[in-house]
Amino acid sequence: MLYIALLLTTLLAILHFLAHFFYFYWIYWWFDVCMHFLAGLAGGAAAYGVLSRLGRVSITRVLLSFVVIAGTWEIFEYVNGLTYSHEGYVLDTIFDLLLGSTGAVISAYIGIKREKRESI
To answer: Is this prediction's pTM over 0.70?
Structure first.
């Protein structure tokens, strides 16, 4: 899963740089939605990979790990003025965290299913 996390993170970085260059975040409202979901998949895969190496993996732990990291990132963006202040900022942030959390849960689910299949 750590290799999958690396692959997804690389894809995320490439898409992010393209999005800034071609203004995708401003042209396509749904592009941000896709990016947050993809970040959740990558973060969930990374959390799963680390937790499985420690022998402490569960969907709840993966989700909690992701929420802590993503929440810290959202606070970092806000404190450092990296967000675009707009009317629905709090609701948008909650939606972003929910999208990412959904991706993280899906990664954990896939990882657990793969692990069970390999152990049979």
So the answer is: yes
